[in-house]
Amino acid sequence: MILADIIPQYNGIKHITELLPLRSSAGRKRMLSQTFMTKAKDIKEELDKVEEMYGFLLNPQFEKPITAIQQTLMQIHYIQNSLNALVQKHIMDEIELFEIKRFALLCEEITTQLDTLSCQYIAVPDLNKVIELLDPESNRTAHFFIYSAYDPLLAEARRQYKALEDEQSDEAQLLREQCLNLEDRIRQRLSKNLHSYSSDLMQAWEAVATLDFTLARAGLALESGLVRPQIASDITQYEGLFHPGIKEILQKKNQRFHPWDIQLFDAPCLITGANMAGKTVLLKTIALNQYLLQFGFFVAAAKADIVPVDVIRTAFDDEQSELTGLSSFAAEIVRLQSVLSAIKEGKKMLVLIDEPARTTNPHEGLAIANALIDLLEKHRVRSLITTHYSKIQSSCRKLRIKGLKIPETISAITIDTINRYMDYSLMEHRSNEAPREAIQIARLLGLDEELISLARFYAGRNETEIEPST
Amino acid sequence: MPFVDDLIKHTSVSIIGTEKNTGKTECLKHILRRLDGSGHRLAVTSIGLDGEGIDQVTLTPKPEIFLSEGTIFVTTEAHFRTKKLDAEILDISQQRTSLGRLITARVKGRGKVLLSGPSDTIWLKKLIDQMQLYQIDTTLVDGALSRQSPGSPAITQAMILTTGAALSANINTLVSKTAFLYELIQLPLWDNPLSEKMLQQTHGVWAVDEYGQMHELPFQSAFTLDANKEELFQHGHTIYASGAITSRLLNTLRMQPNIGKTRLIARDFSKIFADHQSYQAFTKSGGQINVLLQTKLIALCVNPVSPKGYILDSVKLREQMQATLQIPVYDLFNL
Question: What is the CATH number that goes with domain A3-216?
Fold first, then answer.
């Protein structure tokens, strides 16, 4: 699995990749092809690179070389096709030779700057031999021409052609043809010689792409307040966890994102809380950060220790395009089944499910939810399940988002002001009763009084009918 | 030729034909020949939809341009590959045209090349600015006058216009058509801090209110103005049409009350496709037209031969043109 597969599925990831300050199409391709890493060692290596760049960005003393690198990266053209052609022993034309020479010179500039930084993790191979081949007049400029210096015969033919008055004469045509043949021979020779450096060129291309991607990840971390996560083996633990996209939206409205502290063990954990308390956002945030870690990014928290997993399975409303067209219940079943098949394959998983079985009748819905949690417990699956159902049988860990605290004096709130009265912090929740605040919140949001009082009447009368007795 | 002496004082000059086959390429060749060996450093490129080996409109062959050593040219990848000269590649664009990326190159051994160039005004401007890197004195732009072309020749400092029998085989009509175009070229510049911002708007019709705020009017283009006229002046009487200005637009505006206060702003003269009659009716009713880009016409070249075979009297044509327009007129085909 690569990052490009995940981008269309999660708005949060898409948003992050749009914020990445990439400077070349090489870097962009590298980003899209980043693999989902599951081994601690691989993740650590990737994070080491980002941390090194992050350190350079923080140090004002390095501003000049960093800016120089950024500007050079912007000048890198996409030449992967020319490089592939070179590897396959094609004969390069002038335009391709120009691109390769220009690239080699830009790599040389990058190497100079990386040396100033004493960069440990990223190095571009020495392409001096490539430059020498393409710069027979030793001009060190990124221009290219089949220079006369390549072949005395060509120099002579060109001299004779130039001396002629009439370019249309037979003699001129003959000389011109001779020049072109000589140029072809030189291009063949150059392509052959360059071919022996093609693996250096390919490595340089990879290094430049990695440099751009890494510098962009470090830049994003600095810009969005991300931190380097530590890799844990038992407990995933976040302090000050936040969702960068939603934080940004709130900031624009002069509102604050309330970060969470949360621990995830290798067992299911149930999340309850009032409507609008941010249960779904919590799930999305945890999914996003797990992906960030495993794609080698810093994460959105003040402090994070995260256990890498083999598979992340989520079931919440985001862009799961392959399921559009299905009824909501059918879509949910497809999602649940994909969770279960992965569990039964024995994969190390992170499972995040938003209100399982909410799309059917409460009686059977609760039964399905109970069964799901039993299975997650049995297979010790690190999972977070939100629900509005009371009477979940499991003795699993339960957390509750504290919810609304409205002063007596306030009689109405709006969708914009509800944020002020919501306590988003998580607390351990002992009871298996889910909070019942839906009607109260609906009233405060201004739902018709007649409907509210009827709803209150039914809520009281149907208590036992709505929730199946144990 | 005196206009070449004037031309070398400018950093960029476009050569525009009033019609196909009015001798635009001949004019470019003439300038190149005249400046060959003068030490004046030239760059050449093209703008617009041209660039095929065969002119798509008249099916006459589009000529390659002969360039001598040291000249810098910008052309598309497709045409660079067919060049019949030696050239050192200096730069390749990242942006693409329909004929590939743009190659900037310096002629190392004289010969011929087909010119094609950037597809829009902003790109052309950037290219002209880049020529400073190569110590170029003047950049020549083979321009096009076309409604389809998003590129505007008016971005260059100066301009040479070519006209001739291809536009009209009747000397009187030819002179009056050219004189009208010259009048448009001389339209006053709208000198306002908003100009830059307006130039960046390539779509829609806009109003500029008395506080200098721009408002997009609910019209797709100047073509759909008739539908809801009452909304036209809700933000005042200064109207900017980012695209083509047609007879219909001018006629619609003229019928409105307050025509005396109306100021219509066009990108540049090449975006005005209204006929002479509608233009005159508009201005006589008190309407004003301004442009955002203005360029100086340094010469008019005439071609008395039309592709259909008409040949006009060169001397008479030149004299009549000069008397009406009061600018230097040259016949490069009868020097």
Answer: 1.10.1420.10
Tokens, residue A82: 């020319």
DSSP A60: G
* Residues A13, A289: Cα–Cα separation, whole Å: 9
Instruction: Tell whether A257 is within 8 A of chain B (Cβ).
Output: no
CB A169 within 8 A of CB A86: no
A-chain residues within 8 Å CB-CB of B108?
145
Residue owning tokens 């005395």: A152
CB neighbours of A318 closer than 8 A, spacing ≥ 6? A9, A10, A11, A12, A284
**Domain ranges across chain A:** 3-216, 230-466
Q: What CATH number has the domain spanning A230-466?
A: 3.40.50.300
**CATH architecture assigned to B195-291:** 3-Layer(aba) Sandwich (3.40)
Contacts of A102 in chain B (CB under 8 A): 92
Pair of tokens at residue A460: 């009281």
Query: Does B109 touch chain A if contact means CB atoms closer than 8 Å?
Result: yes
pLDDT tier, A97 (very low <50, low <70, confident <90, very high otherwise): very high
Question: Cα(B270)–Cα(B267) distance, rounded to whole angstroms?
Answer: 8
Q: For residue A227, what are its two tokens?
A: 């931190």
Nearest to A77 among B89, B92, B108 (CB): B92
Is residue B61 scored above 60 in pLDDT? no
Closest chain B residue to A146, measured at CA = B88
* Beta pairing partners, B43: B72, B139
Q: B184-196: per-residue pLDDT in tens?
A: 999 999 988 888 8
Cβ-defined contact of A95 to B90 (cutoff 8 Å): no
- Residue A316's identity, in one-letter code, is F
Query: What are the residues whose beta carbons fall under 8 Å from the beta carbon of A96, sequence distance 6 or more?
Result: A79, A82, A85, A86
Can you say whether the dihedral through the CA atoms of A85, A87, A92, A94 is positive or negative?
Answer: positive
Of B161, B327, B185, nearest to B270 by C-alpha is: B185
User: Given pLDDT bands bounded at 50, 70 and 90, which one contains residue B219?
Assistant: confident
Q: Is A298 an 8 Å CB contact of chain B?
A: no
Residue B221 above 70 pLDDT?
A: no
Tokens representing A271? 């999340």
Tell how far CA B10 is from the center of its chain.
16
Nearest to B92 among A99, A146, A162 (CB): A99
Q: Following DSSP, what letter does each residue of B167-195 receive, concatenated?
A: T-SSHHHHHHHHHHHHHHHTPPB---TTH
Inter-chain contact A95–B111, Cβ cutoff 8 Å?
no
Closest B-chain CA to A74: B94
Give the Cβ contact number of residue B3 at 10 Å: 22
Per CB-CB distance under 8 Å, the chain A contacts of B109 are: 158, 161-162, 179
Strand partners, B310: none
pLDDT of residue B192: 86
Buried b (16+ CB within 10 A) or exposed e, B196-220: eebbeeeebbbbbeeeeeeeebebe
| pLDDT tens per residue across span A363-377 | 888 888 889 999 999
Measured CA distances, A193 to A133, A151, A196 (Å): 8, 15, 6
Burial class of residue A202 in the structure, from the number of CB atoms within 10 Å of its CB (0-12 exposed, 13-18 middle, 19+ buried)? middle
What is the arithmetic mean of pLDDT over B136-165?
81
CA distance A431 to A436: 13
8 Å CB contact between B15 and B143: yes
Return the pLDDT at B52: 46
Contact criterion met (CB < 8 Å) for B89 and A179: no
Residue boundaries of the structural domains of chain B:
2-185+295-330, 195-291
- What CATH number was assigned to the domain covering residues B2-185+295-330? 3.40.50
Closest-CA residue in chain A for B95?
A77
Token readout for A137 is 């007049």
How far, in Å, CA of A203 to CA of A107, rounded? 11
More confident call, B164 vs A52: A52
